[in-house]
Every structure is written in structure tokens, then in C-alpha cells.
Structures
1.
Amino acid sequence: MARFPRGAALAAAVLLLAGCSGGTDERTDDGTDGKEGSASSPASQKLDWGSCEATSEGPAPGGDWQCATLEVPLDHTKPDGGTIGLALIRSKATGGDSERLGSLLFNFGGPGGSGVSMLPSYAALTDELHKRYDLVSWDPRGVADSEGVRCRSDKEIQAGESVDATPDDASEETAFFKDATDFGAGCEKAAGKLLSHVSTTETARDMDLMRQVLGDDKLHYFGISYGTELGGVYAHLFPENVGRLVLDAVVDPTADTVGHAKNQALGFQRALDNYLTSTGQDPKEGTRKIEDLLERIDAEPLATTSGRELTQTLAITGIVLPLYSEQSWPTLTSALDAAEDGDGTELLALADGYNEREPSGSYGTTTHSQRVISCLDQKQRPTPEETKKLLPEFREISPVFGEYLGWDTAGWCHDWPVSGLTDSPEVSAPGAEAVLVVGNTGDPATPYEGAQKMAEELGEGVGVVLTWKGEGHGAYGSGSSCVDSTVNAYLLDGSVPKDGKVCT
């Protein structure tokens, strides 16, 4: 069982993982700005930037990338207590100090996405920004090289893939919830007391400490998908420190657990309809054909060339992945055609890409981090009985994805070891500078309506909406010169577009 990620980095990118080694740095802006923090406070620490090393998850990035570790309090309410190390990566502004505006911090979503692994591959989209900003990202607490949580072994992860995420009878339902309980127990054993300290609020506080240590008066930030929620929470906590914030592929901050699942059911069905239309099919007929395929796979999993079987749950996962990018739609067509012919190999390969499964049988742990963060954030925990009552509504929203996402509301945090904190995040930011909120009308994972809700919640005069009538998860760097130039002008010159600007 795996919730669809709210992060572009998790869906389609080739990730380059990097660790950190010691070294020195000639620039003095890697310490405190002298305005915040005493000599013994976390804000006064100096970052020891050095070359990035490879990790067990991937090679080191080439070029001018540097890595360091930032020490942050485990519990921000007890700053003199224990600390944890956060892995950071940066590349200095290519235009030199005379052109430099400061640091531009990136979060690529999830929650659970590794900024250290993603930023080097994403940087190719940001040449103009890189001239005037140090590009900076990090692995948030509980993620990858920042005390990343691994809740299961590779063998246990693969065994969990055999669990039906849309139970059809009492036996499958029992297995579904037992698997959820076992996963939570594994997270508790692996994370210990960190499990109670990986919330979005705590990560936002880490960001403000990061801002101070990097030497920036204001936080300049680019958040994608879940990173928009994180940016909104930061703006609420520190409105006076908001610099130029871009929120792209926006999470609806008013949604609770069930609301997020309904939003995703709407978004992925909308994307599927758009995909079917693009191939000359009637969306209703095309959807019904996929429903029939999934029912047949549920009754009898498909064979693949690897010897593994394609289950219904893996097939749904395989369909989801290419919907994150319009460029991947032909891949979906090929995989569905092969499945109709009885071969599940291509859909399984897509599911393996989503699940971070390597040919060797090893798995990544992004979804582990995603789960520990979201289950701490989210207070609403629907019971199995409550979820069953919701299933007809989910099926109505999306015949293909609704039941999967409906059951997920009960299974994702079932029997979780720690309580959730809030029903929905607080993002109101009165007094903050204008925040650019970018919504894509065809976004599958974070439907366009979330951008409108975010702007409303940020407050009048703060949230400024830029709309792109496009497809895929996220707008910047997706082929719209209108979007890219508007975002660049905002980040480089402080030019705030008219609220409601539309790019076609």
C-alpha cells in the first residue's frame, strides 16, 4: 500500500543521491548573519561545506555542488536538548557575489522527497535563477540522509506488495489492516522518539534556522507539491521573514485526510480523462475499459517476463505514474495495450518505478518517510467502518482510483504509534510579502483548486495566483515560457504579476 505522492520529485525524476564530506569554504555567508542567535545558539553555527560523496543510494553529483550538515534541535521547544543533523546541498550563484541575491531554498515534495538527491537534476531548469541565487536544498528531518526512517526490509516491502489495497472480502480486509499495523510498528522501532518530531511545523522551523545560518535576512523559497504546504506553514509561522516564495503544484491547505484523498481521486481521474481524450477515446468508455481490465487482474494477476505477477494494486500504481507527466502518456498507452494482451511486464515496470524498486530487488524508502511525516501531521483517522461508508462517493469521483484512495484513508495511518497533530495546516500569513501561487489546471496529484484555496488562506494581498492551462504535475519548467518568465521575473526582480494571470 502506498499513497500517491504529492511531489513531482517522487514521480518521474532520476535521482542522484549525494552525501557530505568535510572541507572549507572561502565565502563568509555560510554563517550567521550576526543579527540572530547568541554565540552558543544553533543559529550561530558555521556550515562546513565540502565535496559531496556518493551514498549507497546513488553517485555524487558532478560540477560545483557542495554538501554540509546543519545541526537542528530534535525538539524546537527544547533548543538545549538533543540535536539531529540535516543533510544540505548547494551550488553557488554563477554570476558571482556582485550579482548574488542570496539563497534560494527548494523543497520537491512528498512529503519524503530528498532535496539532496533531486536538486542537481532539477537545476538544469533554473539557469537564470542560478546566476543570482545560491541553489540550496536539503533532506528534511526523517528523510534520506537526515535521520531517514526505514520501516521495513526489502523482503518485507516486496511481501507487502501482495496485500490487496482494495479488499474484496473479510480475509483481504484483515490482511490489509494487519499490514498497516505491522508497518507502523516497524516505523516506531526504526525511528524511536524521532517519530514524534518529523512534523511539517518542525521542518518549517528548521527552514528558518537554515535561513539564519545561510546568512539571509529573508527566506527565498521554491516549494513544489507538498513543498507548497511546507511553504505555507513557514509563511504562517514567520510572516516577517518571508522573501520571495513560489508555491507550484499546490496542496489544498483546507483539506483533511479524507479531503486530500478526494482531491487526488478527482485530479487523477481528470488527468486520465484528458489522457483518454488525447488518444481519441471517449473518457467514459475508456475508463470503463480500464475498470474491466483491473477487475480481471484482481481475479487473476498477469504474468510478466520477470516471473513476478502484476496484481491489481500494482496495476493501479503503474497507471498512476505516467499521469504525472504528459510526456509519459505514450508509455501508458503501450503498457495498457500489453496488459490487455495478457502481459503485465510494462505496467509492473511502471509500478516498480513508483515504488523505487531496483532490478536487484532493493527498494527506496521515500514512502516510509512520507508516511511517518503525514501520519504525524494528520489528526483525522477514519475507521474501517467510516471508510466503507465513504467508498461509494469515492467510486463516483473516480471509477479507477477512487476505491484505492478511499481505503487508503483508513489504512495509511491505521493503528499508528503516535497521534496526529492537526486536521489541516494553518497557512494564514497576514503581513507577509506577496507569495506567488502557481496552479496547473490539469495537475493530477494536486488539483488546480488547491492553488485557489492556498491563495485565499494565505490572505488578501499575500496569495497571488498564476494559472497555467496545462497537463502534468507542476507548471514551472514544463514547457510554458509564460509560466517560466513570470516566475523568474518574480524571483529575480520582485515583479509580482497581476493576481489571476493566466498562461495558456
2.
Amino acid sequence: MPLLSWLDRSTDERPDAIRVDDRALSWVELRRAAAAVADDLHGVRRVAVPATSSLETVVGVVGGLLAGAAVVPVPPDAGPVERDHVLRDSAAEVLLTTPGTPTVDGPAGPPTLPVDLTRRSDTRHPEPDAATTALILYTSGTTGAPKGAVLSRRAVAACLDGLADAWAWTPDDVLAHGLPLFHVHGLVLGVLGPLRIGGRLHHVGRPRPDRYAAAAGSLYFGVPTIWSRIAAEPSAARALRGARLLVSGSAALPEPVFTALTELTGHRPVERYGMTETLITVSARADAPRRPGTVGVPLPGVRTRVVDERGTTLPTDGESMGELQVRGDTLFDGYLNRPDADAAARTTDGWFRTGDVATVGPDGAHRIVGRAATDLIKSGGYRIGAGEVEDALLAHPGVREAAVVGTPHPDLGQQVTAYVVGNGLGEAELIDFVARQLSVHKRPRQVRLVDALPRNAMGKVQKSRLT
């Protein structure tokens, strides 16, 4: 079956199948516009696409996939050094250009090709082998330049089919979101999902609560920052009561936001878990109970395990914390040009090391504690999950945002340190507040009141900038 199977076979000429901000195309128009790009890319192995939130980006990505090329999304806010690294490292042979996006100056950049939405083609390009690379997505670690994760067409298809099963996603759905188009969430799920599964797409542009409220979707995607802002505007949240499913990902959804959305929209949000290297591997299901703080069960074709420092598999008791490892059909093929990083990311028996700390309950429900490097705090012989302390802080009525990290302590090894955004708060008050909810050893030893938390484009707190 073609990767973009719905797009391939749809004869729907309604003008608003794919809408980005205030412009739209029908399914037939999208296929013909993308085929024109694919014609120009004949024989190209890798094509870079400036991933703005625009209809040109959608057409450019789809055109690259129809041509059988590996598509390399370039974040529109990338600085010259990062952009040049992505283009050089990926060996992109062509750079598609869209209105208002920067290009690479000088002889180092690949030749450019504009995406022209007025062009059409009826060429039917042959479907590449499923093992062919679909996307090279660049992901940043804590050190070094971003690494290119090589994702096959087979992996993308497996991810989307698994989510269709988990979320009962059908061609009757209207997907609405305002996520960036250079990440798994916004691009793979948020654009390629409808092109494979069916249903209309409404990308709202800037993800403001009023735009989500006006989108009239049945299926909404958002990150916790978006959902928090929607929950803070009750009229916008109530406008989503007619939806079928609200999906949150890319970071943990704070329990107070989960509760507020449930009360205002009538929907318990679906949380899911994944990485650039693994796509989505675990998700709550539309047909099963959803609990705050858990991200569900493995998708079809995916296996997970939680291991300790020695690699011993831990029991599924909901308490034992260790590194989450995964394997299955959604995994990437490796890091481009980085066999060293690829080897370090895999165990000798073939599991991918996520670097995330998790617990798994007897019912298979996964809870993500956080990154092993920043969210598992080892203090005085205790293993403390930062997320649990953050949830306790967020239950305080004066706390708007909270991030917890481990910082060096001469006696304990690490101490629990909290960064908090709020009004009229005192350090001692917050420490005592947490100590009344959790075990005393989990209370913050220090609370730092700040005006804002550093976040990336997907709304994730950048904890490396806090320590």
C-alpha cells in the first residue's frame, strides 16, 4: 500500500481538504500540485524543505515523498550555522524554497527550486520500496551538532497505522492543530497522518486558543503549553466539547491541566509517547480509560521494557523506575553519518535506549518520569522522579509553571531544586506544601522563583539551561 494511500486514491475535489491558516487545497489539487514538484525532483535522492507552517511546505514535503526522495525538513527558525549543518550533513541535492524563508548564500548551498502552488501535473510516480528513506529529521542532544535520524517509509506507515488503531482515527475525522512542521508531532502525525488515513486537516497557523476554538475539529493535537493556554481561557476550551479526541504529546501534561481540560471540554485527554528516533511507540487508547500522568500502552508491533543500570528488566509493578527501551516496526534506521552514536543508542540484543526513565504498571500503562540525565534525581540513596515533584508544585494555586532538577549537594549527592513561575509565593511555603503531599525526602531543598522557564519550539522546558 502506498505510504500516502488516502492521497493516492482520493477523488475528493472539495476545496478545503487541506487548510493551512487561510489557504486550502482539495485532495485532488494537493496530489496534482505535489506531482508537479515530484516531476522536478526526478532522480533526486535527498531534498531539503524549509518547514514553515505553510501550504508550500505541505506540497513540498508531499512532492519529495512522491518522487521517492528522502525529505529533510529545515526548521524555519534555525540560525545560519544549524541550517548549514543540516544541509551539508544530509547532502541535500536540492533546497525547495517557499515565500519568506531564508536560503543559503554562497557556493556551499544546494541548488534551489521554488514551490509554485499554481502548477499541476497528472504524473503518477511509482511507489518506492517500503525500506526507502522517507524522512531525515534532525534532533539535538545535550552536546554536539544535531544528528539526522533516518526514518523509512515502512516505519512511518507502521506508526500511523498503529495510531489509527489506538485512536479510532478514520476518514471521517477533521484534524486540527497548530504544531511546527519539522517535528514528528506536527509533520508525521499532523500532516502525513491525514494523507495516509484520510480526513481533513486544518492547520490553524499560530496555535492560539481562539484559533483552536474556531477550527471545528473532531481530533485535536497539542503540546502541554498549548493545552495550558486553552485551559486558561474557559470559553475556548468549552468550544472543543464537540470534538472526539484531544491528544497531548511532546512533554508530560501537568495533572492540573489534564483536570481543567476534562472539566471544561468534557474530554479526558489522550497522552502518547515517542521520540524522533522511534516515532510514536506508546499511547493511551480512545477505547480505554485515560489517567493523568500515564501515556498508555505500546502500539501494535511495538515492545517495551524498563531496565536498571545493569540492564536487568524491572518488574511491571508501577513503582520500579528505570530506563525505557523499545523495539519494533516504528524505529529509525540509524543516525546519518554517525555509526558511533547509533551503536551507543542500541543494546547488544537490539533494543533502542530512549534515555527516558519510566515505570510500567501491571495493566501495561506507562508513566514517563523524564530524562535519565535530568529527571531522575538520586538524592541520599533515594531515586526521585522530577515529574512527581513538579505535579505536586503545580497543585499549589499560586504556581503557574514548575521545573524540577537535581543539583549537586555535598552530602546527598544531588538535591531536589525547583524553578517556579507564579505570584505571591515564598520558598518555605512551597517546600512545606510539597512535603505535605509527598514523602519528605522528595521535597525541594531549594526553590528558585523565576519569571519564565526556557522552552524550545515544541514547548518543552530546556532543563539544561536551568542547572
